[in-house]
Fold this sequence. Notes:
Elements (H helix, E strand, L loop, with lengths): L2 H30 L5 H12 L2 H11 L3 H27 L2 H19 L8 H33 L7 H39 L1 H9 L51 E6 L5 E4 H6 L3 E8 L10 E10 H8 L7 E6 L4 E5 H5 L6 E6 L2 E2 L9 E3 L13 E7 L22 E6 L4 E3 L2 E10 L5 E8 L4 E3 L1 E2 L9 E9 L2 E11 L21 E7 L1
Parallel strand pairs: 1-10, 12-19
Antiparallel strand pairs: 1-2, 3-4, 4-7, 5-6, 5-10, 7-8, 7-9, 11-13, 13-17, 14-15, 14-18, 16-17, 18-19
The structure holds ligand MTE and molybdenum atom.
The site of molybdenum atom has 7 residues, from loops.
Amino acid sequence: MTVRKVSLLAAIAGVVSAGVVLAVAELVSVFIGAAASPLFAVGSLVIDLAPGGVKEIMVSLFGTGDKAALLTLMGILIVVISGAAGILELRRSPWGVIVFGVGGLIALIAVVTRAGAPAINGVSTIVGAVAGVVVLHISEQRLARWRAATERSTSTGERPSPNAAESSLQLERRGFLTMAVVAGAAAVVVGTGARLINATSTKVAAIRTKIVLPKPAVATAPMPANASLDIPGVTPYVTSNADFYRIDTALQVPSIDPEKWTLKVTGMVENEIELTFAELLKKPLEEHLATLACVSNDVGGDLIGNALWLGYPIRELLKQAVPKAGADMVLSRSVDGFTAGTPLSVLQDPGTEALLAVGMNGETLPLEHGFPVRMVVPGLYGYVSATKWLVEMKVSKFSEDQGYWIPRGWSAKGPIKLASRIDTPLNNSSVSAGTVAVAGVAWEQHVGVASVEVQVDSGPWVEATLADSVSADTWRQWVYRWPASKGSHKIRVRATDVNGTTQGQAYAPPAPNGAEGWHEITVNIS
Ligand SMILES: Nc1nc2c(c(=O)[nH]1)N[C@H]1C(S)=C(S)[C@@H](COP(=O)(O)O)O[C@H]1N2
Ligand SMILES: [Mo]
């Protein structure tokens, strides 16, 4: 065998062994809980350790596919490192085993340091690492014997008999290949199966579908007939749950059994509160439409959605808790450790419909949108208000506590900025001459949009027709019927809010507190 072929086989055995680590760990995690999966724990640790700017880069590169991108990257790294460890183990045993040991240790640290992780979660990583190390060591030994047998069968001198050498070569060859193929195939089958079980968190998903939400004590006002303009290509006024953007640091959607869920109100309060899901559902719930936006949403971006939320007013809960003098924020905490710091005054404001939401568009909150309970606060970006998988609200001070994104370079306060977007026609599309409906949405939640204007090339700003306003807390559709002439044109949009403030042209990136600037597209009229 050539050196190259031996190295390649050694590397393959290393990659197979890494597959065994992951598959066995995934299998054990089926029994002790999905949060014990080392791959996801390491990914989450990477997310938490990454500097703030990285989020922006990942989101701008991959949008809501940022998690898939991270996992792909980790996959490539695992292949490269385990392949190298395979070669090392063959040439300089036990160095390959040591590399695996270090990798396992890092994974173990990641698993047990996750928010709320019990120590038992470490078991799957340990069992997986031991299994992988055994496979690595034995398969590299077999490869070494196969290589030795090849050398014997080709060296003429000390050959006992050509047949014996030949058959021992076959034996060693088979020994290695069987191990690699069997271990590899088993890792793929077992690992994929176990991962699917861990990912779907079937139990909680089944519990969720059985929940019957109560009728709201305060229903939303009937929607004005003209809240939706009937323009093909414009974003629907209400975003369906399936189309609602998803942004969070959770590589695995947390699964919370609502029977075991409680919300604790703690910190600077006269009365600490602990609320169960059943108690929450018995309270007078309200229904409100609110548009939720991500601070990472760039000019023209789609990290924004509008939904009908069902929930209990947070101000009522705070009334029962009675915040102490000096408190000015509520640090809300997710079961996975994410936190958001929201101004206490906003949550207590009788005019702000901040909800402990349990329903979204007539359905129980979907798992990836925070089941069983999340916060929704009109007028604030999600990173400072919309905590999903909510388990604690700590009444505190901005001078004492910080939400997850603040030490990563984002502003402590995150009021939504006035913005507008062109949905149709699409950028760089070709449209035939005639009247073209240029349409989109504009928003400044809790303030309200008063007018939208459109400019074609360097022409005058022309006022667009606005859809009826449902409330200041939701976006408004707009349309401008443009008499389009042939050629390439630039179209820009800008909105003015109810206070008379117009969006400025100067571009600001999403970090640290939200993008600014006019959305502009180019269309080709033919
Ligand atoms: N637990 C948890 N809640 C979270 C986040 C998170 O990372 N973890 N991200 C916040 C951010 S940045 C936004 S924009 C909204 C997005 O909510 P959605 O995914 O339901 O659209 O959730 C907020 N709540
Ligand atoms: Mo966000």
